[in-house]
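Example 9 (inverse folding). The structure is encoded as follows.
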């Protein structure tokens, strides 16, 4: 099977670089075009981008020409992965959609649009039906916030078996989540920095949408607090959950062990959940690369005297929480025959 060429929007940023890594040896897709801002357009990728990930860019990428984010200039391509800043994504992604593109976006610009699917393949693949409500031949699909993804993945088996009623969530988020150059070293070094963005608001609404139906979010409530910590990669989440039916730690572990999405996609890990028994795990330094960065590590599963159940969840924020999430959604679209033909 010939590979489907994909345009990467925002290719010079941190998530764009992860997308390039993820597509370099992908069995279904290839890098068809690299797009960035007007100031980078016309340059070789090696000139326009300072590579911030370990090692070197994949072979051949350094010499690829960077294009402006203009769907009319990319020939017959009809599939795009977007790693654009949300401020720019709204207009550009809409333009690509109007040109007949399937746009899979990591940006937050369209996450709250009721006609745009917010999808994690293992959790709510059926929400892709929303693309039929969008105008024109193209469409936009989004992946959730980088903390909402591991949170919703961890909750999905519990919600199906016991019914989630309420959550208290605290996050310790790595500096890579702010991109490059990110937050000031003055804020981060020797410090824990209460998150200055709208992470708490996103966590208050996205898990319910992911675990609900296409037209109605799940009814549970979320109280979230988010902080930035001086780690490079990996978001650690503390979860305290109240369920409609009683759920013991052993029952939660069995629900996670028995969870099977039924999907066979190249980027999805098996197992999805790594259940860690040591009291000091999961840790970003030791656990974020499980399942090639796509797995969720769970630990300290205990009785909570206030909410009923508590545990820690950890995921790689720029892989499972960003680029890998977008690529898995692209795989899901292809597996369901929903990508436009060239």
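The amino acid assigned to each position is listed next.
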């Amino acid at each position: 099977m010939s590979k489907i060429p994909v345009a990467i929007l925002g290719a010079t940023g941190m998530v764009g670089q992860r997308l390039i890594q993820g597509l370099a040896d992908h069995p279904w897709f290839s890098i068809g075009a690299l797009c960035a801002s007007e100031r980078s357009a016309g340059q070789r990728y090696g000139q326009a981008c300072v590579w911030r990930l370990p090692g070197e860019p994949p072979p051949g990428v350094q010499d690829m020409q960077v294009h402006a984010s203009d769907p009319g200039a990319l020939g017959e391509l009809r599939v795009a992965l977007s790693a654009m800043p949300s401020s720019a994504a709204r207009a550009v992604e809409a333009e690509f959609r109007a040109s007949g593109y399937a746009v899979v976006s990591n940006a937050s610009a369209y996450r709250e649009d009721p006609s745009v699917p917010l999808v994690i393949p293992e959790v709510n693949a059926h929400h892709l039906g929303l693309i039929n409500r969008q105008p024109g031949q193209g469409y936009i699909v989004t992946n959730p916030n980088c903390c909402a993804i591991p949170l919703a993945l961890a909750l999905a088996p519990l919600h199906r078996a016991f019914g989630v009623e309420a959550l208290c969530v605290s996050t310790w988020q790595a500096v890579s989540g702010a991109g490059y150059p990110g937050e000031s070293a003055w804020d981060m070094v020797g410090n824990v920095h209460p998150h200055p963005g709208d992470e708490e608001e996103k966590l208050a609404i996205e898990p319910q949408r992911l675990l609900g139906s296409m037209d109605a979010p799940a009814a549970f409530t979320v109280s979230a607090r988010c902080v930035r910590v001086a780690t490079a990669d990996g978001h650690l989440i503390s979860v305290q959950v109240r369920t409609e039916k009683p759920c013991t730690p052993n029952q939660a572990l069995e629900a996670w062990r028995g969870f099977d999405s039924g999907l066979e996609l190249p980027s999805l890990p098996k197992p999805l959940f790594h259940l860690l028994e040591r009291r000091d795990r999961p840790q970003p330094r030791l656990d974020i690369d499980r399942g090639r960065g796509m797995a969720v590590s769970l630990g300290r599963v205990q009785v909570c005297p206030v909410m009923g159940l508590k545990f820690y969840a950890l995921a790689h924020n720029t892989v499972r929480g960003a680029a890998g999430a977008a690529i898995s959604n692209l795989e899901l679209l292809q597996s369901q025959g929903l990508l436009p033909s060239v």
